[in-house]
Amino acid sequence: MSNSRVIIPLDFADANQALNLAQQLDPDSCKLKVGKELFTHTGPNLVEKLVESGFDVFLDLKYHDIPNTVAKACQAAASLGVWMVNVHASGGRPMLEAAREAIEQSSNKPLLIAVTILTSLSEADLHDVGINDHVEEQVLRLASLTKDCGLDGVVCSAKEVEPINHKLGNEFCLVTPGIRPAQASQDDQKRVMTPAEAIKAGSHYLVIGRPITQAADPLQALENINAEINPYLS
Ligand code: C5P
């Protein structure tokens, strides 16, 4: 496993573009994320190719279903050799525990993390589905449930890192998108932190896409980010 804290999402619609970028990168300097779009286009073969090339792969399929189905899906993901998989915390305790037990029984044991509240949802959207608490309260509730069920961590926005760390401790793994180096375009991200700010706040892994994937020299862009965060890593 590489020590890198940077996860690069392969947000592409076809395998060639994803492999082309992966070939320009070094598995010791980053990890890769395969999400629903790429996985639905290309299937598990691409994931296995990336793993065979030496990359730690986060399979970001956000499982949310009945416990038995999610457990089987987690087992299937683990068998691909991935480094991290995720589920939705709102699937509830039985589903979270079934996912954790499935991973424990697998020979490859990826980190298992949960999505709390999608950052695309506003408080008004939560009210529509019957959740009347403030977003932060609900995020903390689901993060606590996730930890209580024995999972390894959560995906969260950079602004949630400090309250979750404070409540659940430094060992609980926090994976944070919405990261932008100081000079980079924010694209469509609304609330961003720089890589160094996010690491200092307590994030463990940074999901950084376009500042690397759209750069003229992706490897150099990645090296600049690693150089920015290295002084803050213990
Ligand atoms: O290009 P950019 O750095 O904005 O990419 C961020 C990645 O993290 C994308 O794959 C996006 O779907 C994902 N993501 C996010 N915000 C979340 C959850 C996931 O940007 N709350």
Care to describe what's here?
The protein has a single domain, classed as Alpha-Beta Barrel (TIM Barrel), CATH 3.20.20.70. The protein has helices at residues 15-24, 36-42, 44-52, 67-79, 93-104, 123-128, 135-148, 161-168, 195-201, 210-213, 218-229, and strands spanning 6-9, 31-35, 57-63, 84-88, 111-115, 153-155, 173-176, 205-207. The chain is α/β, with parallel strands linked by helices. An eight-stranded parallel barrel has the order 1-2-3-4-5-6-7-8, surrounded by seven helices. The mean pLDDT is 95. It has eleven helices and eight strands. 44% of the residues lie in helices and 15% in strands. The structure holds cytidine-5'-monophosphate.
How is the topology of this model organized?
Layout: E1 6-9, H1 15-24, E2 31-35, H2 36-42, H3 44-52, E3 57-63, H4 67-79, E4 84-88, H5 93-104, E5 111-115, H6 123-128, H7 135-148, E6 153-155, H8 161-168, E7 173-176, H9 195-201, E8 205-207, H10 210-213, H11 218-229
Parallel strand pairs: 1-2, 1-8, 2-3, 3-4, 4-5, 5-6, 6-7, 7-8
Cytidine-5'-monophosphate binds at residues 9, 11, 35, 119, 157, 177-178, 187, 189, 207-210.
